[in-house]
Amino acid sequence: MDQLRETLKVHHLRTTTCREDVLSTFINRKNALSHGDLEGELGENYDRVTIYRTLKTFLEKGIIHKVLDDEGLRYALCSHSCSEEKHQHDHIHFKCSSCGETNCLENLHIPAVQLPEGYHPEHFNLLIQGVCPKCN
Amino acid sequence: MDQLRETLKVHHLRTTTCREDVLSTFINRKNALSHGDLEGELGENYDRVTIYRTLKTFLEKGIIHKVLDDEGLRYALCSHSCSEEKHQHDHIHFKCSSCGETNCLENLHIPAVQLPEGYHPEHFNLLIQGVCPKCN
DNA sequence: TCGGACTTGCAACGGGGTTGCAGAATATTT
DNA sequence: AAATATTCTGCAACCCCGTTGCAAGTCCGA
């Protein structure tokens, strides 16, 4: 519990029950979550708008990152210490077509790509869809 | 012009002016288009719903494919002959943070990735964000 | 050119996401 | 411990995305 407050403090955020609950939801469920997921879990306690704003704040502060998905945006915890200034991710995301879960494969880096002359890459986002070990 | 009708015919679609216009828009503008882009271009001639349905039909028939984007879905022409049965893409998408355009890099294939035991990959989607040659 | 099959437009709806504002909660200072 | 400044929350309202049902219109093959 103190862990949550500590994380918020590091990122210069006030500790509120909503932020603690959203953060702990990300920590407990390990997979990437959509706003809808969070609303399903916490919607009775907090307004939808508050959850949207909490996500936006966490994004800006480097606590979570976006996960692209063919059916909408999701969010997942940043593993290492991202911050407001530096928000770098190069790991792979895997979405299971059976259970629908999307997960970060933290250990797998996106392979380097040789782009044609003139392209200046900044961010990479690789989504692999298929069947995960659990559903195999 | 006959080219358009031909393409539609190959995919077993009736030729209608809306489908011809949507298809030729994709051919003229080379980049990936959102529904909003098409509505901006053709919205005075056709209902939004019709454009949505045209996109959906083109998707199913293998004329266009989805392009993931951090701010919404886009669509781009399938280069080779995709069909209703086989709809395979393994090229890279590049989104320019300056001009906002998203393009297929048809010649660049997504590098192979060695996934851990138990994962069965089916589809790959790599979006690279950065600055494109035009905006350089 | 006729008829069945497909396509379109309209109306309506649900969900996703944002903004403005007033009131509540938090952190800070004394 | 109380007062203050700052930040956060809830509510209402709004716009955009995408879908569905239905009636009218269009296409294409016989």
UniProtKB/TrEMBL annotation, chains A, B:
Gene3D superfamilies: Winged helix-like DNA-binding domain superfamily/Winged helix DNA-binding domain. InterPro entries: FUR, WH-like_DNA-bd_sf, WH_DNA-bd_sf. Signal peptide: none annotated. This is Fur family ferric uptake transcriptional regulator. It comes from Dyadobacter fermentans. The lineage of its organism: Bacteria, Pseudomonadati, Bacteroidota, Cytophagia, Cytophagales.
